[in-house]
Write a structure and sequence with these properties.
elongated; single chain; about 375 residues; 3 domains; 15 helices
Length: about 375
């Protein structure tokens, strides 16, 4: 709490008003330090801090009346702070007070404070009016020296309140590290190095394994064919049909095992690429039907059957396309649920397209031929 003051002037009354609102100046803190903390929170500017300090010194240590124009002018900014604090909620006011107290200096020389209090009767050495017991608050960087104003210079013998910065502690004044601490550091370094060594060995092993796989692509024919096939399927997925055909034809020509599922997958993917035009508009449904027929001889998967149905549809045989698509739907029911739903929807869409083509073809075959007009010129019936 702040020390009890005699409120015989406007400045004291303004400071007591701040104390009643929760912004009391601790008794072990100089007024200049307290004002600088208020300034750091944007409540005062540098000019107001200098004016208030000068007025406070005049009232305490100079032969001037307790109430004059300069004192009232210095008290005006503090009164404005009090008005702003009264308008704030109690919670915000408490948070502001905590921030201000954190900005105040942490340490106070009590002996120097008592000495300055005892010599307060001398005009040339003003007392600090500090209590003998300091209040522990958070540290704050030392404020800069307040420059004297014209009002202060008009009163000779009145010193200007300054705040001297704290000297940084010397590194040689710090205690040396103990033997126990040094031992713990050595142990921590050893274990960190051990674990980092293990991690580096694992990373090196993974890198070596990846390098071996890359070399196998060129050493092993099977790995090389699988890489070319994967590239062709990727190109097929982004509808680069010409590039996909080149890669898949090469993988098909270099494949040795013509009865494996891997070979059947290559045949089906290549057949699908020939069912759609490339950037030059070229496609080849007969070649697609030839390729997918070989794939079906190895394994009758729903996707392979759908490719064969699409080939028959493009070759003008929608009836066979409908038959094959129905077979694909039946076989799709045996797939796992997560795959079955997506594939079934695609197959149903294809089946509807083929059925519509079949109806159109049947309707075209059943249309009666146009009769020629009669010799008399009357329309035929």
């Amino acid at each position: 709490m702040a020390s009890t003051q005699v409120t015989d002037n406007a400045l004291d009354r303004a400071l007591l008003e701040l104390e009643s609102l929760g912004l009391a100046r601790p008794t072990n803190i100089l007024l200049a330090e307290y004002l600088i903390a208020l300034s750091a929170e944007g409540l005062l500017d540098a000019t107001a801090v200098a004016d208030i300090s000068a007025a406070y010194n005049r009232v305490r240590y100079a032969a001037v009346p307790g109430e004059d124009d300069q004192t009232r002018a210095a008290a005006a900014p503090i009164e404005q702070i009090a008005v702003r604090l009264r308008d704030l909620p109690a919670e915000q006011r408490e948070q502001l007070a905590q921030r201000i107290f954190k900005r105040l200096p942490e340490e106070v020389d009590v002996a120097a404070t008592e000495k300055s209090t005892e010599s307060s009767a001398q005009p040339s050495s003003p007392p600090s009016s500090l209590a003998s017991r300091p209040v522990p608050v958070a540290s704050w960087p030392a404020p800069s020296t307040l420059a004297p104003t014209d009002d202060v210079s008009g009163f000779p013998g009145v010193p200007v309140v300054t705040a001297s910065p704290k000297s940084a502690p010397s590194r040689w004044s710090r205690p040396w590290t103990t033997v126990e601490g040094f031992g713990l550091c050595c142990l921590a370094t050893f274990f960190c190095g051990y674990f980092l060594r293990e991690a580096s060995q694992v990373a090196f092993a993974k890198t070596s394994e990846a390098s071996e796989r890359r070399r196998d692509v060129w050493v092993s024919p099977e790995a090389w064919v699988a890489t070319i096939q994967a590239r062709g399927i990727d190109e097929l997925g982004v509808q680069h049909y010409r590039t996909a055909r080149l890669a898949l034809e090469l993988a098909l020509a270099c494949s040795d095992d013509e009865s494996s599922d891997h070979h059947a997958e290559t045949l089906n993917a290549l057949a699908w690429s020939y069912l759609f035009p490339d950037q030059n508009g070229a496609k080849d449904p007969p070649r697609a039907l030839e390729l997918v027929t070989k794939a079906l001889a190895i394994r009758r998967r729903p996707g392979y059957i759908d490719t064969a149905a699409e080939a028959h549809y493009q070759l003008g045989n929608p009836m066979e396309a409908v038959r094959l698509e129905r077979e694909a739907l039946v076989r799709a029911q045996r797939l796992p649920p997560w795959r079955q739903l997506q594939l079934t929807n695609e197959l149903k869409t294809q089946l509807l397209k083929f059925q519509n083509a079949e109806r159109d073809l049947a309707a075209a075959k059943t249309l009666p031929k146009a009769q020629s007009p009669s010799p008399t010129g009357s329309p035929a019936h």
